[in-house]
Amino acid sequence: MESSLRVRRFEGLPSPDEFSSEIEPANVAAVFHGAVKDWKAISRWNPSDGGLDYLEESVGSSVLEAMLSRSGRIFYGDIRSHERVPIPFSTFITSCKKHLQNLDVGSSFEAQVCSEDSDLANSDIPGELYVAQVPIMNTERNERCPLETLTEDIQTPVFLGTKTLASINFWMNMAHSRSSTHYDPHHNLLCVVSGCKRVVLWPPSACSILYPMPVYGEASNHSAVNIEKPDFLVHPRAKNFEEHSQKIILHPGDALFIPEGWFHQVDSDDLTIAVNFWWKSDMMSNMLEHMDPYYLRRILNRLVEKEKNQMLHESFTGGSKFIENYQLADVASEDNHEMDCCKPRDTTKENSRRHGILQQLEPFALHVLYELVSLVHNTISVDNQNGSTESTSKDPCSPDVEKEQIVKDNPRLSEIDTVANIFSAVEPLVLRNILLGMVHHFPRTLEALILHMLSPKGAEVLTRKFDEMDQQIMKEEQCEFYRQFYGVFDDQFAAMDAILNGKELFALQAFKNVLDKYLGARPDQPNS
User: DSSP states of 375-429 as a string?
Assistant: First the structure.
């Protein structure tokens, strides 16, 4: 967990200016101990001290919607697992009184606090009602607020004084319950009035490991992962969910600021009562609707670039192993063989000049060139001048090999990433010298390498190396390199297309990964 994402804790209350300028913009969760300890509700609503009678007298006649879970005491956001049912609040209070009477006589109600080892998922107790998100005040929706009279017992925390609140909501559960992992579309201040809540938090950056539900679904803000019993075969990225999580325990009077987009799972002890405040963030409030398509494209572009970097990082082991194998091998003896095989066999002035390029290569660069040439001739079928297939054991540095015609209808070997791993292991200027060596000595091999063996990942790595190279050499050197490189190809535009098409295919895969990781959308699956 990055230190900048650690939950902050405050014993004193910040001023409105401090909250608005320092705490809220950081978009990091924060705990304010004792923030609402002076609310009248702390004493009036306390179930162990007549609070249930008080609530019944104050709002018992109100009919409100409660969540009826089909999955025991775990309340999921998906409407398939619960339903909203109208119920007189007095009926719910009566059930709470019976539950309070059934609690162990030997332990005081105040002593029943959330345990770090609570195992709700293994409980055998049947499904329960949960009075969840019942509005005390709501400015976003033109709807009745059945518990409006309870506003007399609470006060908006001072540091929220400048905020335009979207709603104030009442939450109450009878027995130990859990809300599934989800995020809210608003900033949230969760205040515990009675009982205890244990909250597990994940920052928005952990979205991909929590497998969000499809963005087009009814429960789009919920995670598909069962945190209690995760199935790593179905959700392999979830293996790291614990190291990205933080656990907070809230007691009566405490308040937790949960920024928009932060995933949270909440366990509530028996007869826990809470009030939360929702308000729009400044960023969302200031976003102009006509700019949404632009913002969407910009954010997707940023996520795709991040995903491309991650894809290359995860697959770079091939390049590392290539270097290790070279270093562990008897380099001296192998280099002598490679350099012998590539020594000039023609004493003409032109060939001597061209072979001088090979002789200028460092041993590692010469080794890479040899590997690339061998890879091409060992992978792609070649026809010799007589129309027979050459043995893969044929000396790849032989001048005769360079006269062989590459079979044009050979399928693109898009799954082979050996070339990409080799490119990854080589510094940009070293790669330039290697490619120039192929330009002068193995032009047809270079053509086959680019047109027939360059995978999407290889195209991405190659263009990145080109970009790095351009930053290290003069403009004139850049132009001369690309003139020689593309001059090898009978159709220079076909070579450019092969590289750019591969690069775009790599980006397309990254885009699909982004849709899966962050939007829960899997376009390749028929039922997505």
Answer: HHHHHS-EE-TTSPBPPTTS-TT-TTGGGSEEPTTPPP-TT--HHHHHHHTS-HH
Token pair for residue 141? 């929706």
C-alpha 184/C-alpha 255 separation (Å) is: 16
Q: Give the Cα separation of 502 and 486 in Å (integer).
A: 17
Q: What is the pLDDT of residues 398-452, one digit of tens each?
A: 434 443 333 333 333 334 588 999 999 999 999 999 999 999 999 999 999 999 9
Nearest to 165, CA basis, from 175, 157, 174, 176: 157
For 344, 377, 454, 506, the CA distances from 380, given in Å and listed in that order, are 25, 6, 12, 22
What is the SS3 assignment for 171? strand
CA distance 86 to 525: 38
36 touches 253 (CB < 8 A): yes
SS3 of 135, please?
A: strand
Among residues 205, 313, 192, the alpha carbon closest in space to that of 249 is found at 192
Q: Work out whether the CA dihedral 76, 82, 85, 90 comes out positive or negative.
A: negative
Question: Cα Rg for the chain, rounded, in angstroms?
Answer: 33
Q: Tell me how far apart the alpha carbons of residues 410 and 394 are, in angstroms, rounded to a whole number.
A: 20
User: Beta-carbon neighbour count of residue 198 at 10 Å?
Assistant: 20
Please give the pLDDT value at position 319. Answer: 53
SS3 per-residue string spanning 256-319: EEECCCCEEEEEECCCCEEEEEEECCHHHHHCCHHHHHHHHHHHHHHHHHHHHHHHHHHCCHHH
Could you tell me the pLDDT band of residue 507, with boundaries at 50, 70 and 90?
very high
DSSP of 54-100: HHHHHHTT-EEEEEEESSTTEE-SSTTSEEEEEEEHHHHHHHHHHHH
DSSP state of 212: B
Beta bridge partners of 256: 31, 190
Identify whether the C-beta of residue 479 lies closer than 8 Å to the C-beta of residue 470. no
Instruction: Quote the CA–CA distance of 247 and 29 in Å, as a whole number.
Output: 11
Closest C-alpha among 248, 183, 178 to residue 210: 183
Q: What is the mean pLDDT of residues 494-500?
A: 96
Nearest-angstrom CA–CA distance, 359 and 322: 22
Quote the tokens at residue 75: 């309340």
Report the 3 state secondary structure along 446-488.
HHHHHHHCCCHHHHHHHHHHHHHHHHHCCHHHHHHHHHHHHHC
Tens of pLDDT, residues 322-342? 555 655 454 444 444 444 444
pLDDT of the residue at 217: 86
Contacts of 297 (CB under 8 A, 6+ apart): none
Confidence of residue 169 (pLDDT cuts 50, 70, 90): very high
Q: How far is CA 380 from the centre of its chain?
A: 38
